[in-house]
Amino acid sequence: MDFDTVIINGLIVTASEILPEGLQIGIKDGKIASIGRKLLRSDSSARVIDAAGGYVTPGGIDSHVHIAQDNSPTGDTWETATRSAVAGGTTTVLAFASQKRHEESVLPAVKAYHEKANGQAHCDYGFHLIVSNVTTDILNNELPAVLSSEGITSVKLYMTYEPLKLTDKDLLHVMLACRKLGMTTMIHAENSDMISLVIEGLERNNRTEPFYHAIARPRIAEDEASYRAISLAELVDAPILIVHMSSEKAVQHVRDAQTRLLPIHAETCPHYLFLLSDELRSCHGHDQFHGARNICAPPLRHSISDLEALWRGIANGSFTVWSSDHAPHTYDHPLGKKIGLVNGIPRFSKVPNGVPGLETRLPLLFSQTTACLPSDKARLSLPQFVQLTAANAAKLYGLADRKGAITIGFDADITIWYPQGDPKGQVEIQQKHLHHGVDFTPFEGIKVQNWPRYTILRGEVVWDRDSAGIAGTKGFGQYLKRNKGQIVVGRLGQTAEGMSEGERDFWM
Ligand SMILES: *[C@@H]1O[C@H](CO)[C@@H](O)[C@H](O)[C@H]1NC(C)=O
Ligand SMILES: *[C@@H]1O[C@H](CO)[C@@H](O)[C@H](O)[C@H]1NC(C)=O
Ligand SMILES: *[C@@H]1O[C@H](CO)[C@@H](O)[C@H](O)[C@H]1NC(C)=O
């Protein structure tokens, strides 16, 4: 066979191993057609990409990004967000079509989101659905309809935020519906009333500078809600993923559940592993509000030991996915972060939550692998990197028939890194080099040991750092109709603690 493209001299990493040297990847019609030696015939017209001894990993799947939602009018468009994705080695994003509380149906939100994304994306993309008004019609009719007609196979629910949060009963109703349909339920777990009480107290005492955001959402609020989410899921035997976890105790709850083989998955994000709440105090010249950039929820935590605990969770397999939770808000804009400067007075509780991180997600984690650090310093292996950044998300979200692995027949979505030690790969993260539409990065000044040199989407080079930079075009990214997800951790059918066998049959 003559290939369209052949990648040579790379070290291919899968979710379980690093393949032997000398293997080449032959790409035909956007798919991986062959992995073998000497794929190039002497008369071949294939384009050759020389990985020059660099590692070759599956294109990143960022399964938690917010792009151009109605509640965040500044920051990114679909074009700028997905442009930054490919510049950071990510070839697929999953973003949120969000039902508004007063809406009876979820379908208008899906339609409107398609209209925003259509023809704009540099990478492939799918939608999760945020449900904020749980009705029987949505549970019985609309969820099955979006599953079959749109390939939307995951739902995100909130336990906090007034306009979005659900009661425990509604959380249970959605978990049950999703369980029946084989959809994945994602949960933002923070105790809303705890947070609201603390915010009231802080405001009464005029403690409203950005730093108090971290005081307003203490770890215990996450711990309690995470344990509650797990208990709700256990009651109805439903698989869940708890998004953006930042607290060791909450992760311990997940780990305990996983040990009992419950299908409880956990996600964490770069900002919780690299940044501390001190960042919220940061000033810049005369700008006392500067720290508001780093307001996100859950908030950045206080101590190095918080970060270390999460790194242990990465190392010991408690986390299923590493996502950016990219939530773009321009800092210096009256509808961006600065909406929280009310008549010149900082009010952290009015600042939109979230930090950008789509482009920096892969390099930050890659730098902590054995590819970049001696094995006693490294936080994870390269196969673990592949699991956390691509393979597990593909399984959990119903893309494991085409994405998340370098395997014959799969989409040729591939990230090629610089050879180890190549100075070109050693990058200090700086806003001025990034491709998103936001005016800052929370990771400014952090040095990473490697950066994606090429990003390939369905066989096309869409990022070529040493020459064209962004080499693809907007609109090349396709909407992904997804299959039902697989359970990655644990299994269904466990009897809940204290229940007898078959007891659920009386009521479920
Ligand atoms: C949720 O949808 C129902 C219709 O199914 C509607 O009557 C209700 O007002 C909506 N809820 C809110 C909070 O607007
Ligand atoms: C908070 O600020 C307001 C307005 O400046 C002032 O009237 C009030 O006394 C302050 N409260 C406290 C507890 O400092
Ligand atoms: C794994 O790491 C998490 C997070 O630090 C911790 O709670 C858990 O106890 C660890 N589990 C094992 C088995 O090492």
Automatic annotation (TrEMBL):
Q: What is this protein called?
A: dihydropyrimidinase
Every copy of the Amidohydrolase-related domain together lies at 55-462
The protein's UniProt keywords, in alphabetical order, are: Hydrolase, Metal-binding
User: What's the cofactor?
Assistant: Zn(2+)
Q: Which family does it belong to?
A: Belongs to the metallo-dependent hydrolases superfamily. Hydantoinase/dihydropyrimidinase family.
Enzyme Commission number(s) from the entry:
3.5.2.2
What catalytic reaction does the record list?
5,6-dihydrouracil + H2O = 3-(carbamoylamino)propanoate + H(+)
| Pfam families noted in UniProt | Amidohydro_1
UniProt key word Mitochondrion: no
* Leading EC class: hydrolase
